[in-house]
Each structure stands twice: as C-alpha cells, then as structure tokens.
C-alpha cells in the first residue's frame, strides 16, 4: 500500500488535450452547461431548468428510438423493434425519476420563481408532441402552440403524414394474415378503437407460441405505455404537490388538464383485450 497520490498517466492515460478531442469536446459540454439562464434570483430555478432540459434530451432519444422501431416493424425486423421499444420504456423510466427530484421543490420555492416563466409551459414541448403523434395520439388541436415555428410544424406534419407506431403494428398484423379491416384511411386523423383489431390481438394472446412475434410486439407496446402512463401520473402528482389546483402558466387548468390526459389510451385494444380473454 502506498500513500502516494494516484497518477493515471503512469498507466498510459492521456493527460494533455491541447488540439485533441477531449471528453468535454465530444459531448459539447460548453454549450450544454452554459444553456441554463435563470430569470429570477431564486436558487431553485436552476433545478427547474435542468430537470426540464434533461427531460428534453431523453425525449430526443425516445423520438429517435420510436422512429427506428417503426421502420424496423415495417421492414419485418421485429427483434430489432423489440429492442428499441424496450429501450424507449427504460427512457421513460428515467423521465419518471426526474419527477422525484423536482418534487423536492416546495410551493413557496416555486412561487418565488414562477413569474419568471411567463407563459411557458410543458404542454408546449414540441418533442413531447412528436412522441404522442409518433405512437398514435394524433390530437390535431395540439398543433396550434407550434404554429409560430415553421421548422417544428414541418417536423410534426411529417410525423402525421406517416403511420404511427400503433398503425404500423396493426399493419404488421394484417401482413401476417389477421383481419384488421375497418382501419381509417387517413393516418393523420385520430384513430378509433376497432373490434377486429381487438379480436386479432385476442387470437395472438390465446396462442403465444404460434404467434410469438406478434405476442412479443404486443407486450413491448404495453410495456412502453405502462411507463408512459406512470410518467403522466407522476407529472400530475408533482404539479398538484407544488402548485395545488392553480391554473398552469400556459393557461391550462393545471392539474385538471393533466388528469384529463390520464384518460388517453395509446393502444386501446391491447388493454381491452385483457378483459376479453
């Protein structure tokens, strides 16, 4: 045992980065760590900003994974799609954990910084909207908050022009010989539950060994929505704990608005089929 300080250069670690790529260079840490600009004197505002910025980074990754999963299902690469959907569920597990940190902010601490938010609100997150549109909740009314940013509108419209994750899963059922007739022709519109789709999933669940590919896809979708629902519920709980039933900064009813969102089901037949089995 030695009391000498450890010198990593002895083992060959690179210690000089003048003109060479470093950890901070690769990650763009200068831009990331200097992207927090509190507008109040409250020390708690930094927590609020970082929690939302890191959530947006996780959502960026979720969007990438969901898009890849859609393509994989379309191409019949179901094992790859399952991996991507599993990763997306774990991403939402991370997003859930972020609420635990934000809930350490007390009502008085939030009140001290709330005026600095202006009319900004989480429901204006275009990445969250992209996730909802990608997986299947195509509420076109929610395009309005993004109309002032042409690039964002173009991105959301491009998502709406293609089948959603759930549309793609249903198309995969059809390719496998299941009767899922009655699906809407315009994928931009909000989809309605279809009894034939439920019947198809019921057939899958009654014989997992025969329909293992479809069964695994179904469970990965349910797993994702399970974590997504927890994220929404934790959002409601956090908001109620911090501001009670005050109106949201963006003009919504706050908790009442968020509670309505809890009723939105992304993959309805995959939940209703459990009662039918």
Descriptive overview:
This protein is an all-alpha fold and 277 residues long. Helices cover 59% and strands 0% of the residues. It is built from 12 helices and no strands. Helix 6 runs parallel beside helix 7 and helix 9 crosses helix 12. The relative contact order is 0.11.
Q: Can you lay out the helices and strands and say which pair or pack?
A:
Layout: H1 23-27, H2 29-33, H3 45-74, H4 78-102, H5 107-113, H6 126-135, H7 150-160, H8 165-175, H9 195-206, H10 212-243, H11 255-261, H12 268-276
Helix pairs in contact: 3-4, 3-6, 3-8, 4-10, 6-7, 8-10, 9-12, 10-11
| SS elements, strand count | 0
Low-pLDDT stretches are none
The structural class is mainly alpha
Helix-strand sequence: HHHHHHHHHHHH
Alpha carbon gap, first and last residue: 65 Å
Rg is 23 Å
Strand content: under 5%
Which of globular, elongated, flat, extended, rod-shaped describes the shape? globular
Largest sheet: none
Helix coverage percent of residues?
55-70%
Average pLDDT, all residues: 92
Number of helices: 12
Characteristic key phrases:
277 residues; mainly alpha; globular
What's this, in brief?
By secondary structure, the protein is mostly helical. It has helices spanning 23-27, 29-33, 45-74, 78-102, 107-113, 126-135, 150-160, 165-175, 195-206, 212-243, 255-261, 268-276.
């Amino acid at each position: 045992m030695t009391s000498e300080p450890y010198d990593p250069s002895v083992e060959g670690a690179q210690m000089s980065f003048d003109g060479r790529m470093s950890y901070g260079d690769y990650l763009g840490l200068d831009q990331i760590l200097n992207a927090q600009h509190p507008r109040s004197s409250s020390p708690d505002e930094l927590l609020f900003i970082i929690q939302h910025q890191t959530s947006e980074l996780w959502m960026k990754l979720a969007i990438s994974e969901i898009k890849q999963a859609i393509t994989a299902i379309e191409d019949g690469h179901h094992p790859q799609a399952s991996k991507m959907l599993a990763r997306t569920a774990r991403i939402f597990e991370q997003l859930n954990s972020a609420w635990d940190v934000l809930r350490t902010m007390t009502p008085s601490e939030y009140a001290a910084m709330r005026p600095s938010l202006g009319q900004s609100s989480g429901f204006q997150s275009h990445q969250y909207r992209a996730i909802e549109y990608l997986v299947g909740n195509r509420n076109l009314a929610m395009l309005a908050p993004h109309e002032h940013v042409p690039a964002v509108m173009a991105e959301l419209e491009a998502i709406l022009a293609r089948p959603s994750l759930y549309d793609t899963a249903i198309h995969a059922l059809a390719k496998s010989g299941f009767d899922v007739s009655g699906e809407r022709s315009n994928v931009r519109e909000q989809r309605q539950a279809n009894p034939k789709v439920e019947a198809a999933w019921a057939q899958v669940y009654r014989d997992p060994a025969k329909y293992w590919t479809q069964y695994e896809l179904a469970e990965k979708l349910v797993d994702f929505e399970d974590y997504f629902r927890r994220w929404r519920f934790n959002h409601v709980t956090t908001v109620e704990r911090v501001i009670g039933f005050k109106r949201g900064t963006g003009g919504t009813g706050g908790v009442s608005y968020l509670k309505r969102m809890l009723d939105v089901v992304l993959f309805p037949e995959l939940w209703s089929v459990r009662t039918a089995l």
